[in-house]
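Email to the structure team, subject: DEAD/DEAH box helicase model.

Hi all, the expression group asked for a predicted structure before they design truncation constructs. Nothing fancy, just the tokens so they can compare against earlier work. One-line instruction: predict DEAD/DEAH box helicase, return tokens.
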Amino acid sequence: MAFNHLPAAMHDALGPLSVTPVTHSVPMAKNHRPSRPPENAGSRPSPTVVLDRLAAAAGRAARITHTEHLPPRAGTHATWPDRIRPEVISAIGQAGIDHPWTHQATAAEHALDGESVVIATGTASGKSLAYLAPVLSTLLDGAHAPNGRGTTALYLAPTKALAADQRRAVKQLAAPLGSAIRPAVYDGDTPVEEREWVRQYANYVLTNPDMLHRGILPSHPRWASFLRSLRFVVVDECHTYRGVFGSHVAQVLRRLRRLCARYGSEPVFLLASATAAQPSAAAGRLTGLPVVEVADDASPRGELVFALWEPPLTDLHGEKGAPVRRTATAETADLLTDLTLQGVRSVAFVRSRRGAELISVIAKERLAEVDRSLPGRVAAYRGGYLPEERRALERALHSGELLGLAATTALELGIDVSGLDAVVIAGYPGTRASLWQQAGRAGRSGEGALAVLVARDDPLDTFLVHHPEALFQQPVESTVLDPDNPYVLAPHLCAAAAELPLTEADIALFGPAVPELLPQLEAAKLLRRRTTGWHWTRRERAADLTDIRGGGGRPVQIVEEGTGRLLGTVDEAAAHTAVHEGAVHLHQGRTYLVRKLDLEDSVALVEEAVPPYSTNARDTTAIAVLETDTEIPWGDGRLCFGSVEVTNQVVSFLRRRLITGEVLGETKLDLPPRTLRTRAVWWTVTEDQLDAARISPEILGGALHAAEHASIGMLPLFATCDRWDIGGVSVPLHPDTLLPTVFVYDGHPGGAGFAERAFHTARSWLTATRQAIASCECEAGCPSCIQSPKCGNGNDPLHKRGAVRLLTELLRTAPPEPEEGHPAERSGGPRPEGAEG
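Reply from the structure team: attached below.
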């Protein structure tokens, strides 16, 4: 998230802001040849049978470190509230649903009572029907209103795909109700000629927070009739609105509520999430309203078999001669291949766009060895595709034309892909909430399902597959956010002022940080105070000040040089690492080389090629302490939390051989540095502590560096993030602390709560870090303990034993964990990159 295109005055007022995401490829090993499916592949085997078949190949059984069996569960029925119109109940009956589950009826009752409600029940528990029943009934009530357009409702989804899928479901459910229900999608893919019809006639508008922020709210006079009649706002998959992204969405919803009040409406908010802890509190922070919680899941559930899978060690050696495991990418590709051959409908979730493309390519190659007709049954699905490509893939998956799909989290949410038998998760997705969301995509028709988590060669993944209790005996994380983050709040105050002048009465709506920010925005000449309130002063659109997804700036267009064909886009913040000159770019199974990156025009020119290598960027990072908010003694050292400025620069990229991961060479890059003002936790050690830990000056840098890498790898177990949301720097003598220091910082301007959570759980966090390093079987350090896939220094220096001794001494004098303030823990949005030094 960055104000990369803010007016200079905003930069001066809030400080320089930018962030540098990094994506990396991984080496692969081809050691498994698929065979033809068994005779009964066309039947629907139990998840246990499917897993046994996967484990039957030579050496595979030993890769399963744990299997968890979640038994089936019976459902409990209720009756719909008598205020639901009989026509709606009849339409629901025609869809094959005679009676609601208890939680559906309870949620509908609250909605009809005018109470905002969050439905926090499991995947495939019928949350959509819980809010659709009262919404459709109320829309039907208003369909014949004597004045105006009647009642309206707004549906918000985090992705375009989910909104389009929900429109299909609503249209099908409401078909018996005739023209009284007029659902329509309004997003960036909606043709211009359709948009006016949606504004004037649709009474159930499905969109996303981005379009609400950039398109609907700034043009509210054109939406006056719709907003005046707005009765319900549905916020689907609300657990995704967390951290910086969630904080932006919280302010967008406050702007929506403000405009609705201006037009005389006060909509009820209906929120839904399959994976949320403390859902009422989280929904209240998101909407700014009291929210009733419905969390007792009364729906039936099929059996779920959940396997933890650790790829084997290979004969290869990585940086500094470290042993290398077979990659999760290659292992997942083989599993997806075998599931496809069994006729098992499956999705493989992958953390990166490149990973999704690679798994698809590998699976197609393996399938072609068996049957030339099979590669067409597997595809990749990720963000950055053109709209028509996404829609075609969604239709093919829904119809069963596709048997296997390698997808990023773009497909994680509640798109109806009923009929899936198995899910393979390539690497821990960062949070237990996301893990269960992905696992829940299989078995949605009530049948048994298989989920397999394939561990990456990474400290956290290695820890989890050998400590299953950390996954299966712990609740999902709290979905928390901080709308008062000034980097979030400031642009929304400007956007709100552009929509309607801000008044004193609005301060309570937007939060306690407003009085401090308004003078800064006045001084920056972004807002001007007059007798009627604060006004937006510029010609530019205030809504363009920020990208609520956290990308910042214009997306970089990826264009084929010879033809001018647009292949897709990449976030501006990711451009330095994803599409630098010489980078390998994958799209729909084809490989391209980036010939030129034009940052000024936001264009990357590529040409098709077949290089025998992949690329990943290297960067350098420096950090300065701006302000220490709080600190506590750790023996003679200190544990601190505060504000820092991080300077990051991509300086080169490595070329790695595709199969082995062998480094073929390094190429220098000339890209500008980026600065990031954010929040960090850091700890220092003294000479006496170093002497007690037997850390000599020669190994100090390596011990600190190893502890930094491992602590970043383990933090996602304690904060709702993953290692790509955070960064770190370790320094034997830092100029601001004058001591050896390790920093871990949020990769978001203004902070996202990860570092604060680390501060409050430091003892548990660093204890787990020490355990992860000490228990690793390697001799001198490997990717499973102290090596990082995104280290800007090539994982040099690192000293495994020194890190264990250092953390042992630090923890020996560690005080009890400090109490958490508000917001105690926050969770992350998209994945801006913090480099590891």
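The radius of gyration is 26 Å. Residues 1-33, 37-42, 821-835 have pLDDT under 50 and may be disordered. Ping us if the truncation boundaries need rechecking.
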